[in-house]
Design goal:
Layout lengths: L5 E4 L6 E3 L2 H7 L4 H10 L3 H8 L4 H11 L4 H9 L1 H4 E4 L1 H12 L4 E6 L6 H7 L8 E4 H4 L6 H10 L7 E5 L2 H9 L3 E4 L3 H10 L5
Parallel strand pairs: 1-4, 1-6, 4-5, 6-7
Antiparallel strand pairs: 2-3
Helix pairs in contact: 4-5
Length: 205
């Protein structure tokens, strides 16, 4: 195995806490079962990731309302109150990121499934996103993880050799996607485990 020179982070779930629950649990008055049903059947995950791949939010919202008109107000909240779904930074992972950023031996980048329309709100809330040498945002590229084209674009844009890179993501499907193009993957669980996994790959923290 070649020496790792480039470390690529996913953002949501690894460095940034994001959850629709922050809006909808209050709207459903604490009834988690009703909230879960809504997020599984009305504003479902596969609908959200379509916007992460660049589908226009306004169009997606109106199409969803046309399908479920009785839930119009709740559907509009999904992106209307999206900023409230942004929680905190995961401080343990952020500390690891800072050490890697400060080490001149590594390039540190990010690859995220994120709507290009909501991305500016994340930049405004988390100034440390400026630390990265570069960030590839799926919504701006009209492609998303776990498909090979977005990993290949990352490699091409930043002139990365796949065998010299590692990618950290909390989604196992996304790890499988990166490994399919030759990038070493780390399935993120928590910050202490991540530190051990990085050290195992010979990365100095």
């Amino acid at each position: 195995m070649k020496e790792i020179k480039t470390i690529i982070f996913d953002l949501g779930g690894v460095l940034i806490d994001w959850s629709p629950e922050y809006v909808y649990l209050k709207e459903f008055r604490g009834d988690r079962a009703k909230m879960d049903w809504f997020l599984q059947h009305i504003c479902a995950w596969d609908w959200n990731v379509n916007q992460d791949a660049g589908y226009p939010i306004a169009k997606a919202t109106e199409e969803r309302i046309a399908l479920f008109p009785e839930y119009e107000s709740l559907i509009r909240m999904y992106y209307g109150r999206w900023e409230e779904m942004l929680g905190f930074a995961h401080e343990g992972t952020l500390a690891i990121l800072k050490k890697l950023i400060d080490n001149p031996n590594y390039r540190v980048l990010a690859l995220t499934n994120w709507s290009g329309e909501t991305w500016p709100k994340a930049i405004a809330k988390f100034p440390w996103l400026q630390w990265f040498e570069g960030i590839l945002v799926s919504g701006d590229e009209h492609m998303r993880k776990p498909f090979a084209n977005i990993y290949n674009l990352m490699l091409e844009r930043y002139h990365i050799q796949p065998e010299e890179a590692v990618f950290i993501d909390d989604s196992y499907a996304n790890i499988e996607g990166c490994e399919a193009v030759g990038i070493t993957g780390i399935h993120f669980k928590n910050a202490p485990t991540l530190e051990i996994q990085l050290r195992t790959l010979g990365i100095t923290i």
